[in-house]
Amino acid sequence: MKQIIKNNEPQAILDWKADACDDWQPTYRDAPKQVYRINLAAEQGYICCYCNQDISDDYFHIEHFRPQEDFDHLEIEYSNLHVSCIKNKKKGAPSHCGDAKANWFDTTLTLSPLDNHEASFKYLGNGDVEAGITNASDMIDKLNLKDESLKAKRQAEISGILDEDTIENATENDLVTLYHRISQKVDDKYQPFIVAIQQQIKQLIPVRLHVQL
Length: 213
Fold this sequence. Notes:
Elements: H1 11-18, H2 33-43, E1 60-64, E2 81-85, H3 97-101, E3 121-123, E4 129-131, H4 136-142, H5 148-161, H6 164-169, H7 172-182, H8 194-204
Antiparallel strand pairs: 1-2, 3-4
């Protein structure tokens, strides 16, 4: 899970909230959702806040980290909003990430993408994911991060960066350079499944060079 660094709340949202008066109070129902969507996706580098798959095709929804049902006072709080993959899911299609999370929230077990939890999830070369810390197992289960479609996408992205030739022939410096390259946004977008790929590259780099990462 890639840590999200929140930007300032968009001016358009601040202006909308500033119109509040005795006769009208801003609510999520009448919020300028497209403004939220555009800004939230951009600050996340167009990857899902939970699984980190690509969402640049607009297949995502606004995710309330603390659910509206129990935290209605946070329904338009910018710091509580992210974007997560899946929008208008087809009947019978697998559910994961924010769609699977739904109204689940536990102050201890629900790990926020605003915190650095990149070591909390251990990604494997075959695309699977395991808990790096005890609490992460609950997130993996509740958000269905072991979904087979996600596993296949992770594996494809990993092997696309770390093909057999790269693994066999890349020098230590090549791998350090590769790590830094995939860690940067390109055209404002992060590499899909960035943390999973970073972990795989790091395993190929001698521990003595980890300080350069």
